[in-house]
Write a structure and sequence with these properties.
18 helices, 9-stranded mixed beta sheet, alpha/beta, 6-stranded mixed beta sheet
């Protein structure tokens, strides 16, 4: 091979992909560009992958192949680090063994790199195929509606909402890997954090051709991690590393972190609250202590099953200049005891206990008299508040002196954590007519000017 044809290290990643191994490995071996080494990894598969890999290697004696078999399951990021450190290539091409490369993938990408020495990471479009290798979509970018352009691909902030590049198509210079220090082994997924850190150091580019086939099937990683708590925890970990990048980026990072925490609250309140406590100071709106006091008003009956998580979601708002006013009717469960346990630990919670049952609206009117804030947010103590609820509502409230009420859409959740959403019209004229027949917005998601609410009362 001529000297101007640099060595490429193809890192073939396998974990329980026995069914697709041969097809994937054949596509890696059949590249028209021949100056490559093939490093086949297996992360302690429980199927017959290793037997098939050994058999395939024996059938290809002329190829420069090495295998790396982990003695225990190390995870994707650790396996990648092991393989890259064992490689010799000037370029690194990771790919899962259930995917395939077009025969000209390496030829096209290496030619591009040689013509563009300032580019350190390159991606291509890809086709989507099923378990039978039938092509279902010829362009993942078109299928996903991705804005792929030189400007967007080199915009760090574009990556704050997810790794929109086609990960199976990525190839990069070894020097980039060395510069950023490899993959973060504390994370379950490799691509998003790697791209964020790489974008701070290097120029990206793309080839607008589908040079990789990505297999969509039940064993894909994203089907396993889904919207599980661990996945959200890892997203939060990687985003926290990029705080203090810039004011605009930090705003987007904080919002994304809060969205993930809200998703965790919907899945597992206790885990989310524990993690939130550690994150709170990092993503708190530091200016909120200088802004108007917000009184969060709630009335409670027997809410013992949900009340602790509801109160935590209020206390851990990013807008921190708040007080929580709770008016409690006599209860037959542990609701009042739980509230008192919070009162003993937080000096911004006020509990008023009705001597006899008053019901919702009289209790809210009693609570109004205790509110000291210039604004009053309503919540129900069997609900959860998005971590940025008050911050975002107050931002809108303070943007216009004439605004008296701010509200939002809501998510719904049943006892089995099945979720939905309720969307309200933003049209003021429609809402005026709707008010004649019912409430056009959610009471428990609303923020009022105190003067407006105290004048109207319930």
């Amino acid at each position: 091979m001529p000297e101007n044809k640099p060595l490429v290290s193809i890192i073939a990643l396998n974990y329980n992909q026995s069914e697709f191994l041969e097809e994937g490995l054949n596509s890696f071996a059949d590249q028209s560009y021949r100056n490559f080494e093939l490093i086949i990894t297996d992360d302690c598969s429980t199927d017959d992958s290793r037997e098939k890999i050994d058999k395939w290697i024996a059938a290809h004696p002329g190829l420069p192949i090495r295998k790396i078999y982990n003695s225990a399951n190390r995870g994707l990021c650790a396996t990648l680090n092991i393989a890259v450190k064992a490689s010799n290539g000037e370029f690194i091409k990771p790919i899962a063994c259930d995917d395939t490369m077009q025969v000209n993938y390496l030829e096209e990408t290496i030619n591009f790199f040689q013509k563009h020495p300032d580019v350190s990471l390159l991606c291509t479009d890809m086709q989507l195929m099923d378990e039978k290798s039938d092509i279902k979509h010829s362009s993942n970018w078109k299928y996903g509606g991705v804005n792929i352009s030189e400007e967007n691909i080199n915009d760090f902030e574009a990556y704050l909402f997810g790794p929109f590049l086609n990960t199976p198509s990525l190839i990069y210079r070894r020097g980039l890997y060395d510069k950023i220090g490899g993959y973060d082994e504390e994370l379950a997924f490799e691509d998003w954090d790697f791209l964020l850190r790489s974008k701070k150091e290097a120029k990206f580019s793309f080839i607008d051709s589908s040079l990789v086939n990505y297999r969509v099937h039940a064993s894909n990683m994203h089907h396993h991690i889904g919207r599980k708590v661990k996945y959200s925890q890892d997203i939060i970990k990687l985003l926290r590393k990029h705080l203090n990048t810039s004011l605009n980026a930090d705003k987007k990072i904080r919002k994304k972190i809060c969205d993930e925490l809200y998703g965790m609250l919907m899945l597992d309140e206790k885990t989310a609250i524990g993690d939130w406590s550690e994150l709170y100071r990092d993503i708190q709106d530091k200016e909120s202590v200088k802004k108007p006091l917000v009184s969060v008003l709630a009335s409670s009956g027997n809410s013992g099953e949900f009340i602790a998580q509801a109160i935590e979601s209020v206390l851990l708002q990013t807008y921190s200049h708040i007080e929580l006013i709770i008016v409690a009717d006599p209860c037959t469960d542990k609701t009042v005891d739980i509230i008192k346990s919070f009162v003993s630990r937080h000096n911004n919670i006020i509990l008023h206990q009705n001597q006899e049952s008053k019901g919702l609206f009289p209790s809210l009117n009693i609570g109004l008299e205790h509110c000291k804030g210039a604004y009053i947010a309503i919540t129900d103590l069997d609900d959860l508040c998005h971590p940025q609820r008050l911050e975002r509502e107050m931002e809108l409230m303070l943007s216009n002196d004439k605004t008296g009420v701010v509200t939002s859409w809501v998510k719904t959740m049943d006892e089995n954590r099945k979720t939905g959403s309720v969307e309200y019209s933003p049209d003021k004229d429609v809402n005026k007519v709707s008010m004649l027949f019912g409430s056009p917005f959610s009471h428990g998601a609303s923020l009022f000017k105190t003067s407006v609410l105290k004048q109207a009362k319930y």
